[in-house]
Automatic annotation (TrEMBL):
Region feature (Disordered): 31-107
Active-site residues annotated for this sequence: H250 (proton donor/acceptor), C266 (nucleophile)
UniProt entry keywords in alphabetical sequence: Cell shape, Cell wall biogenesis/degradation, Peptidoglycan synthesis, Signal, Transferase
Pathway annotation from the record: Cell wall biogenesis; peptidoglycan biosynthesis
Stored Pfam families: YkuD
Protein name, as recorded: L,D-transpeptidase family protein
Secretion signal, residue range per the UniProt entry: 1-25
């Protein structure tokens, strides 16, 4: 029995020695999952289940009972006359441009304006009225930034994300030469520059919450790990790139657009963005953070 206890302690010590020590993570009690819809890095990184709660862009629909109409009895044709065939006229819905199941949101015109400004999501008409083309563009935008559910409705989350991205001033990041990761803490957006030119357009992020403010300043990535373990918060940090005080870039472990929570100082990314940042980054890469997250 004594030999078994000694062996167990040695195994535990070996696990602690082999695993890294990240300093920031999300509250593990919060629900949600990493964004982008892509597969996780590995089974060990799936630390929280997918958030099944409808997002704020979803409008609950109350099913209406369908009226029942009694079916009239078919008349028996006489021998002298034959029944005339019935011609059904096409309904207006068959030629309508309004997509079925794509409701119009309260921020329709504003979202159309921002998507037209951003470009890359398809044709939109800035008129405040939902159309099949508008719906497709909004859905594409929602899927890109993991806005749930991606049903084409211009709700508050879609409006907020589109506005933040469209109003990000990339010139605020004094990148200089070489590759630089830029973060606008005020708008909660991030992008990448090389030799003063944007090579990765602004995308969404979520930084430190109240009490764990992510500081503004210029830093360098000094440690990277494809899958880092955070000792204080007991959570995996995929695509970890540390730059200061236990803070770094990594894939989000909760629903990114839940603003009621935040990181413990880290710059959290959707899956696709975390992978892209990992591919571009290296030890020594510059990180410039400007502004301050509201409420911190």
């Amino acid at each position: 029995m004594r030999h078994l206890r000694i062996t167990s302690r040695l195994v535990a010590l070996a696990v602690v020695t082999l695993v890294g020590a990240g300093a920031c993570a999300f509250d593990p009690q919060a629900g949600g999952s990493g964004g982008g819809g892509a597969a996780p890095v590995g089974a060990a990184e799936t630390v929280t289940g997918a958030n099944g709660t409808p997002g704020p862009d979803q409008r609950a629909a109350t099913p209406k009972p369908k009226p029942t109409t009694p079916t009239p009895a078919k008349p028996t044709p006489s021998r002298a006359t034959k029944p005339k065939p019935t011609r059904t006229a096409p309904t207006p819905d068959s030629t309508s441009t309004k997509p079925a199941g794509c409701p119009q949101g309260e921020h329709q015109r504003a979202v159309e304006t921002y998507l037209a400004q951003l470009g890359g999501f398809g044709r939109v008409t800035v008129d405040g009225r939902q159309s099949a083309a508008d719906c497709a563009a909004i859905k594409k935008f929602q899927k890109r930034y993991d806005i749930r559910p991606p049903q084409g409705r211009a709700g508050p989350t879609t409006y907020d994300v589109a506005k933040r991205l469209a109003t990000t001033d990339t010139s605020r990041c004094k990148a200089g030469s070489g590759l630089t990761f830029c973060v606008d803490l005020t708008r909660q957006t991030t992008w990448v520059m090389r030799n003063g030119k944007v090579i990765v357009k602004p995308t969404v992020t979520r930084t430190g919450m109240a009490g764990y403010r992510t500081p503004a300043g210029t830093f360098r990535i000094n440690y990277r790990n494809i899958k880092e373990w955070s000792d204080p918060y007991e959570v995996w940090l995929p695509y970890w790139q540390h730059f200061t005080q236990g803070m770094g870039f990594h894939e989000t472990t909760t629903y990114l657009h839940d603003k009621s929570i935040g990181s413990h100082g880290c710059v959290n990314l959707l899956h696709a963005d975390a992978v892209r940042y990992w591919e571009l980054g290296k030890v020594g890469s510059k990180v410039v953070l400007v502004g301050r997250r509201p409420g911190t």
